[in-house]
Amino acid sequence: MPKVTGNGLSEEARKKLQQCGECINQILKAAVAINGSVLAEMEIPAAYIESLPKNGKKFLGDIIYRYITAEQFSTWWLLDSLDLSTEHQTLEVRVEEAVHVWKLKDQKRCGSGSKTLDMSKIQYNKDVGQAILESYLRVMESLAFNIMARINDLLFADDSTKISVRRLEVPLRREEEVS
Known about the structure:
Blueprint: H1 11-41, H2 46-60, H3 62-69, H4 75-81, H5 87-110, H6 115-124, H7 128-178
Helix pairs in contact: 1-7, 2-3, 2-5, 3-4
């Protein structure tokens, strides 16, 4: 934990530190947003896409798997083909459908939202420019985050120091008033 001297930071120093914190926070937000865009633009690796159907088939079974992985997927086709005679079966199928449709179709289309997918994109990326930019932005995110943490630690230390100083001053003032 950082320490501040004497009576804590001056108002001017504290104000400058807070302004620096605001700037660093903007840098952090920008780095996160740009990195997200870079990752979204990266091609989804074939190895990642190939791993999805295997996992999906294991959980869904052949019939549901074939419907979900079809080029012209329709939830209505899937629901028409299933036995939904009991409420329990209907609910179970709807939950499975929602989970797996999102995993298989939406991730293929939008290409984001998954740490596993992001790591796979970074690992198999062949575009050197994107790789350098993503790497640089990851470093910037980390640095900005660490600087923000240090600034917040300093502001906390300053607040704690000032509270301690005020607590010490109150008994001294009372002693002065008594004498």
